[in-house]
Design goal:
The complex is a heterohexamer, with two copies of chain A, two copies of chain C and two copies of chain E.
Chain A (H helix, E strand, L loop, with lengths): L2 H4 L3 H14 L4 E7 H10 L1 H4 L4 E8 L1 H4 L2 H11 L4 E5 L13 H6 L3 E4 L3 H10 L4 E8 L4 H13 L5 E8 L1 H10 L7 E5 H7 L4 H8 L3 E4 L3 H17 L4 E3 L11 H10 E8 L3 E10 L8 H4 L15 H5 L23 H4 L4 H11 L7
Parallel strand pairs in A: 1-2, 1-7, 3-4, 3-5, 5-6, 7-8, 8-9
Antiparallel strand pairs in A: 6-11, 10-11
Helix pairs in contact in A: 2-13, 8-9, 9-14
Chain C lengths: L7 E2 L23 H15 L11 E3 L10 E9 L5 E2 L2 E2 H14 L4 E12 L4 H18 L2 E10 L7 E11 L15 E4 L5 H10 L4 E3 L9 H10 L5 E3 L5 H13 L2 E5 L7 H10 L13 E4 L1 H12 L8 E7 L5 E5 L5 E4 L12
Parallel strand pairs in C: 1-16, 6-7, 12-15
Antiparallel strand pairs in C: 2-3, 3-8, 4-5, 6-8, 9-13, 9-14, 11-13, 12-14, 15-16
Chain E lengths: L4 E11 L2 E7 L3 E6 L11 E5 L2 E5 L2 H21 L3 H6 L3
Antiparallel strand pairs in E: 1-2, 1-4, 2-3, 4-5
Classes of the chains: A alpha/beta, C alpha+beta, E alpha+beta.
The structure holds iron/sulfur cluster (2 copies) and magnesium ion (10 copies).
Protein name (chains E, F): Hydrogenase maturation protein HypC
Family (chains E, F): Belongs to the HupF/HypC family.
GO molecular function (chains E, F): carbon dioxide binding; iron ion binding
Chain lengths: 368, 368, 359, 359, 91, 91
Amino acid sequence: MEFSQAFRNGDLVQRVIAEIRRTVTRDWVIMEICGGQTHAILQSGLDQLLPRQIELVHGPGCPVCVTSLELIDKGLAIASRPEVIFCSFGDMLRVPGSNQDLFSIKAAGAQVRVVYSPLDAVKIAQQNPDKQVVFFAIGFETTAPANAASVLQAKAMGLKNYSLLVSHVCVPPAMHAILGSPDNRVQGFLAAGHVCAVMGYWEYPPIADQYGVPIVVTGFEPLDLAQGILMTVRQLEKGTHEVENAYSRVVTREGNQAAQAMLRRVFQPVDRNWRGIGTIPMSGWGLTPEFAGFDAENRFDVGHIQTQESPLCIAGEILRGLKKPHECSAFGTLCTPDNPLGAPMVSSEGACSAYFRYHRQMESVAKK
Amino acid sequence: MEFSQAFRNGDLVQRVIAEIRRTVTRDWVIMEICGGQTHAILQSGLDQLLPRQIELVHGPGCPVCVTSLELIDKGLAIASRPEVIFCSFGDMLRVPGSNQDLFSIKAAGAQVRVVYSPLDAVKIAQQNPDKQVVFFAIGFETTAPANAASVLQAKAMGLKNYSLLVSHVCVPPAMHAILGSPDNRVQGFLAAGHVCAVMGYWEYPPIADQYGVPIVVTGFEPLDLAQGILMTVRQLEKGTHEVENAYSRVVTREGNQAAQAMLRRVFQPVDRNWRGIGTIPMSGWGLTPEFAGFDAENRFDVGHIQTQESPLCIAGEILRGLKKPHECSAFGTLCTPDNPLGAPMVSSEGACSAYFRYHRQMESVAKK
Amino acid sequence: MTENKLPAFEGPVCPLPMRHDDQIVMGHGSGGRMTQELIARVFAPAFSNPILAQSNDFASFPLPADAALKGRISLSTDSHIVSPLFFSGGDIGRLAVCGTVNDVSMAGALPLYLTAGFIIEEGLPVETLERVTASMRAAAQEAGVQIVAGDTKVVERGKADGLFINTAGIGWIPDGREIGGELARPGDAVIISGALGDHGIAVLSARGELGFDADVRSDVAPLNKLIQNLLAAAPHVHVLRDPTRGGLATTLNEIAQQSQVCIEIREQDVPVHAAVRAACDMLGFDPLYVANEGKLIVIVPAEEAQAALDAMHRTQYGEEAVRIGQVKADPAARVLMKTLIGGTRILDVLAGEMLPRIC
Amino acid sequence: MTENKLPAFEGPVCPLPMRHDDQIVMGHGSGGRMTQELIARVFAPAFSNPILAQSNDFASFPLPADAALKGRISLSTDSHIVSPLFFSGGDIGRLAVCGTVNDVSMAGALPLYLTAGFIIEEGLPVETLERVTASMRAAAQEAGVQIVAGDTKVVERGKADGLFINTAGIGWIPDGREIGGELARPGDAVIISGALGDHGIAVLSARGELGFDADVRSDVAPLNKLIQNLLAAAPHVHVLRDPTRGGLATTLNEIAQQSQVCIEIREQDVPVHAAVRAACDMLGFDPLYVANEGKLIVIVPAEEAQAALDAMHRTQYGEEAVRIGQVKADPAARVLMKTLIGGTRILDVLAGEMLPRIC
Amino acid sequence: MCLAIPGKITEIYDQNSLRMGRIDFGGVTREACLEALPEAKVGDYTIVHAGFALNLLSEEEARETLDTLNEIANIEAELGLDDTEISSAGM
Amino acid sequence: MCLAIPGKITEIYDQNSLRMGRIDFGGVTREACLEALPEAKVGDYTIVHAGFALNLLSEEEARETLDTLNEIANIEAELGLDDTEISSAGM
Ligand code: SF4
Ligand code: SF4
Ligand SMILES: [Mg+2]
Ligand SMILES: [Mg+2]
Ligand SMILES: [Mg+2]
Ligand SMILES: [Mg+2]
Ligand SMILES: [Mg+2]
Ligand SMILES: [Mg+2]
Ligand SMILES: [Mg+2]
Ligand SMILES: [Mg+2]
Ligand SMILES: [Mg+2]
Ligand SMILES: [Mg+2]
């Protein structure tokens, strides 16, 4: 069967949305935590079709956007070394560090390569024995298995010239951070379907219970998202806080056990600094002692990286929904998409950049 | 004063030639041994103006043409190594080895650089400490001091990545080989002025005496050459065989003592294979034991280079004037300038290539 | 919620690109916003003249009065830098000929003559050059143009990428023909000649760097005969343009900007081959931003739209032509897309270089 | 002795170059014999048509009858790859504009419009691009032409050499004007507009690789006004050509070949600046083979020679014009030179790339 | 985060100590790591992210989901609600 | 062999253990090694090959040579011989 097309059926989506309209009776705030889902929602225009009562807020689930400035600057310093071939997912190339991005240093002569998979970086290491190949291992639990596999393979092949610059982040601690905030507005969660493909959703019932929010595992096609929202709204209206699965073709409660075992071997929980949010305890993964030799931060001494997010930036408040972007003193003046001071202006789907662009460009465009 | 222009005075040249006409009474064969002089003669058309009785024959004094096939192939093998930057005088780039030239291997990825001076190659070695820089040290006694200086400098600077592929040839043994041949036709010599600038001409009186030929040290401007020919013809007509100096502004009998001392320190006589002629005992220079570490042939194992000049080639007889190029069975068919089988077809001033081009192109061109 | 705002969708870009105004980066060659900014900042002020300011794929101009020319001249140029030189469905030679034939033709001109400038990296096999020139000849014959002037330069190894080809082309615009990006009018129909993204995906697949094989052939083709047939059937065409670098979205934005109109397209009507869609899904690309080399955007008064489609359907390279939208007055200088599920969003120009996403 | 033969002098070449017919080497871009052979072997057969076969710096052609054009169109292209981008007396931008303005003008055409295609290596400072485009604007203004179409491509670092610029140009040839390399006739005078070799030596000096500093400025200049003034005074000019790559010797050979005549020049009359001669002496170059970018060869009936010289002397870039020889019937397709000391030799085309000699 | 797409396994092999496979995404094929799918066999569907197969896809579950959603849709169609809005959405 | 040209020494210095100088060849300058000319001083003329100064040039000797040749030429001019041939040579 064609798994993607069937879930892009516009007619069916609209009928599910009609069911949401029939179900909803009052205002609800639902967060899709995953940036890929944010992307899908904006691309399909799903948010416009929802009843006014439902406000979708976009979570911090974009790994390129939440990677800390310090780690980006470390990556830039490592990538600039003449003996290094720095491999990265494509979307990391334009993330601004303190002064540069990977594009700039590539233009200035650094060897930066875009790969689709970390396993391609291992091949590059094999083909370039006189170079050090470093992979910028960003991502959530979905990407971690691929990165782990690359290290396992490099070790099995005896490669001494492959390492990871690790910036893994994990979803459950972020959900805790959001829901545990005193000014939290999120009443229901769409859980990230591909994270759950690996991890399952056995970790979520305690969260749902603790904060009293429904959590629905949701896929990425418009129909998946509409279904996830419907199931969340139904629970909200009923007052339940179950963990449900709207992505059962991909996700099981237990997740992929083999992948989880691989992750436990290669990675261990560490504190992680999220750009725009700050450090969340035990919210990321670092390499275990067995694989510490593959850690680029150990292999390359990049000196002391001194970074500081702008003191003007109120990203933390904005990301928690406490303030609106135009309430920031830097908004649109010192801070623009061309010269972002904070994460919400970095991401094209970030609240600050969205506000900036809409206010700048869209004054004459009324909703259809 | 302007040293060059004064000796290019066409009027004066013609008047000297008129004096040659008045002096000459019968046929004489004079060899200019130096390829640079051959070049100057052809470029100025001096030979056309000489009386018919004087035949200029062109000696083997072109270092790029007489460098042996084996050494060229060695140079190509060394230059093809990925760690090597191979530096050379420009005219060496198009000399055909057995299958390739430096241009081909450069196009295929080898690092080949044209330098004006071997001292520039030392600079390249200094700037590229992770590369091996090899200079193709061809040339007669004129070029040897520059090559020697480069080795002395590299040693003083402690450079471990500089070496010479040495193909030095010396003039006096070549004169012996030519004059000592049973079928020698050369009756007078124009000695190469720039060789003598370094070496002086104290080595020549024994040669003049042994073979009874006048030898006149001659410069490179048309007037120098006309003067050298005049002085040679005057001796020939008188029946003397003195060594005279028609290039006294540059050359003294003793030559440059400091340069000679430098040469004795860096180089020592060795047997040398001349392309198109064969091995002439003690006709070249190799590095002395003190500088053997700078010998590229010691530094790089290029395996066994197997070359063979074509068995069809009668270059030896042609260079001694015993046969004419069209008497060679390969001439114009198997052997052409595009695919030379022997040295006289390699050089654009070689007898075989000249014959080939004139017969091919010039049938309709009468002498002015 | 920003209920009164439409979401802008800047091609597949997250995060926003950093501004690069001190040195040239790859995005400056993307054909998208960074290219437009570079042109606006560097080239336009330097060369400023009314013909250049037309901002079409072609320059259109008369000759001196003494030349007594009826109609106008169409002139265009493109440099071609594709890697690899050969890919499924085409090669750099076919690309170089078709690209310029097409740009010249977007004036409604009869393309006549091309120049070809070759920049060759030392070490290129002569046989490669022979294959490329044979392909150029075939493409020129197909298009009915002649290559009448050329130039050859060789650069050292490591100072080019095998072979670059620049072509410039000249054509004749018959008297009275008025076609240009500034002429789209509210009410016009928007037609595309076939499926989008084939060229970009075919080349990316041939490049091999991302490790995928796609069952996709480049669409590279000369469009001048399609255009001649189209114009015979629909003489009042307002705009012709080929959505090359930057894709359909970027090209429609250029037109919307030039004409100060809104162009609205319907996602469900935009044709994309299944394999192209699969490749885009895999890489996180949007096919609306992927390059085409044999597709034609036609903007034509609604009353001639059917005649235009019929003529296109009868012509090679136009069999799959389809109407994808219409021109509206507001919001001016905007491209909107009705999504599959009935939403509407702004379709912006490509922000920088298109890169595979993980997110 | 070969008494009945003249020595051929293939530029400063010893030994003879090896044949390179399997891969491209630098010599294929020299503008000399190897370039000519590559064109003859690869490009000419592929693109074969009567206009290309004219082998001039420009293509000259009419438009379709419906266009009612009086006169003809002149079209030309060149890619520019100079390193360094800036040198004494000029830069790649001025070069790119002047080179094509000049080639277009060699038809006796009024140059009108240029296209410009930029291939930029990532990492190029934008400020460099601004300096280059400012220089292009200045040159275009000086020449009175407009840059009306452009293209920008960016390639990865290590896949270009900073910046390559292709220009193509179009001009109008008034009715009745007949100028071309095939039109030299025995008895014609051969004029050169000034001293030879300045451009080649200025660039080589700026490159720094050979470690010399020369007090020489490139002669790069637009020659169209010189040509217009010349043609006003000497309307029957037969040939105009700029001796660029390959120098005077190679360019005269092309003309001798096209017209099947002998061109004889006098060494003593060929102007060369002292510093250029000194640099050539040092490197073993012959200034007759060194590139110029602002010099004009004029071949004109003897009776108009003085009028031509007078007009040139009154015009910028022609002050040092001098008659250097004449056209003869035999030997056809040959260039001969009377040497300073009264000898005669064949001046052949440049064999391969010009390289510094030690010998 | 986590762009992942479904495809069909057409080939399984070992490479440098990892279990790998060729995946057909519908006219596009690519290699992916099957290390976390020890039970996968040729013909199975999987969902791939960054060259790594995350999990098997269940065709049965997909059908069930679609059936459920179609039921909702049919209810909605029977009710005849919101028709105007749907057509105004440009479908 | 041995293209070498005369030039004037305009500067002398040591560089990486060699005696070096700047030579003016008449509008063109270049560095050359003066190691073999310990006695050379600024203003002297030398003849340079491959970046190495081979020897000093003697202005006096040059003049003498030219004088000698001019004498020959004058003799020849007085004799009035070969004039036809000379002019036919294109001068
Ligand atoms: S506008 Fe900029 S500085 Fe202010 S909160 Fe947003 S990202 Fe931070
Ligand atoms: S023609 Fe060729 S083979 Fe014969 S002697 Fe000359 S170089 Fe040798
Ligand atoms: Mg174009
Ligand atoms: Mg184009
Ligand atoms: Mg050209
Ligand atoms: Mg176009
Ligand atoms: Mg040209
Ligand atoms: Mg030109
Ligand atoms: Mg273009
Ligand atoms: Mg020209
Ligand atoms: Mg996800
Ligand atoms: Mg010599």
